[in-house]
Design brief:
By secondary structure, the protein is of the alpha/beta class. Helix content is about 30%, strand content about 15%. The chain has 9 helices and 8 strands. An 8-stranded parallel β-sheet has the order 2-1-3-8-7-4-5-6, with helices on both faces. Bound molecules: 4-carbamimidamidobutanoic acid (ALG) and zinc ion (ZN) (2 copies). Pfam families: Arginase.
Length: about 325
């Protein structure tokens, strides 16, 4: 540990923000600091998808879009990069030809990155990666509360007989006992399912659902109140599938569904999570090939910035 103030991002009034290396928010790399409090890490992996591929290019697109982020977050009243040492930890390069091996590698790398207390905001990558990230989180903190923003439940059982896919991470996690089943919520779900049974099985695993329509009818404040009550002070992992946003707000994703949240609603709900016991988070399913004018990449970079800011607000660490 050092008494030095954190190394911040490049100053955009001195070095044009469109110049230089594309680390997240133009922050230092992990190897440039002695200790990182918060690390943004990419997982360029999309071998678990059931429809359009391309999320392997998500981390690079988020880094590019994050060049415009500024150091002060007015809605949360925090300067995350001054409060904590935040870094870009690069990418965890996993095997694109072997889902099982990729999951093992990712779990190990996440465990070693967090071994001395660093908290991760992981940028995917498809939703398969949430399982090893949750395993690593639970190894450290015990079973975690999960707040899952997504158009989809992702508690399906198998695809083509395969248990590890982007539609199944949370069923596997529940089966493995790494989730605190008293505090599991999906937010923003919508769209057609395979059958009513999907919902029954999801409920049996312990999930509560706030659909996209519920958010619209109840509004952000009531939604946040209900989520905060359910979560309490449990260790909380937040997983954001960018397809929770309406395709108008996030066209760049592999399994888009009509009728989603606005980016404003999502960011406002995230800001409502301040002072909860957030231990880690991910933003997944950004597939830049289907994006237009970086709409989705900008949204994902802002979501990542909000998650970093929530972690930076943690006291006494
Ligand atoms: N996790 C995401 N984005 N999508 C899951 C979709 C599963 C399906 O194809 O039914
Ligand atoms: Zn989804
Ligand atoms: Zn998902």
């Amino acid at each position: 540990m050092t008494d030095q103030p954190p190394i911040g991002p490049l100053d955009s009034s001195r070095v044009p923000r469109f110049a230089g290396f594309a680390t997240f928010a133009r922050l230092p790399r992990i190897d440039e600091v002695e200790h990182a409090d918060v690390a943004v890490v990419g997982v360029p992996f999309d071998s678990g998808v059931s429809y359009r591929p391309g999320a392997r290019f998500g981390p690079a697109a988020v880094r590019e879009a994050s060049r415009l982020l500024r150091p002060y977050h007015p809605a949360l009243d925090v300067s995350p990069f001054a409060e904590k040492q935040v870094v870009d930890a690069g990418d965890i390069a996993v095997n694109p030809f072997h889902v099982g091996e990729a999951i093992e590698t990712l779990q190990q790398e996440a465990e070693s990155l967090t071994a001395d207390g660093t908290r991760l905001v992981t940028v995917g990558g498809d939703h398969t990666i949430a399982l090893p990230l949750l395993r690593a989180a639970a190894k450290k903190h015990g079973p975690v509360a999960l707040l899952h923003f997504d158009a989809h439940l992702d508690t399906w059982d198998t695809y083509f007989g395969e248990p590890y896919t982007h539609g199944t991470p949370f069923r596997r996690a529940a089966e493995e006992g790494i989730l605190d089943t008293s505090a599991l919520s999906h937010v923003g779900t919508r769209g057609p399912l395979y059958g009513k049974r999907d919902l029954e099985e999801d409920r049996r695993l312990g999930f509560g659902i706030v659909t996209s329509g519920d958010v619209m009818r109840r509004g952000v404040d009531e939604t946040v109140d209900a989520l905060r009550q359910r979560i309490g002070d449990r260790p909380l992992y937040v997983s954001v599938d960018i397809d929770v946003l309406d395709p108008a707000h996030a066209p760049g994703t592999g399994t888009p569904e009509a009728g989603g949240l606005t980016s404003r609603e999502l960011l406002e709900i995230l800001r409502g999570l301040r002072e909860l016991n957030l231990i880690g988070a991910d933003v997944v399913e950004l597939a830049p090939a289907y994006d237009h004018a970086d709409i989705t990449a900008v949204a994902a970079s802002h979501v990542a910035y909000d998650l970093v800011s929530l972690l930076a607000l943690r006291k006494g660490e």
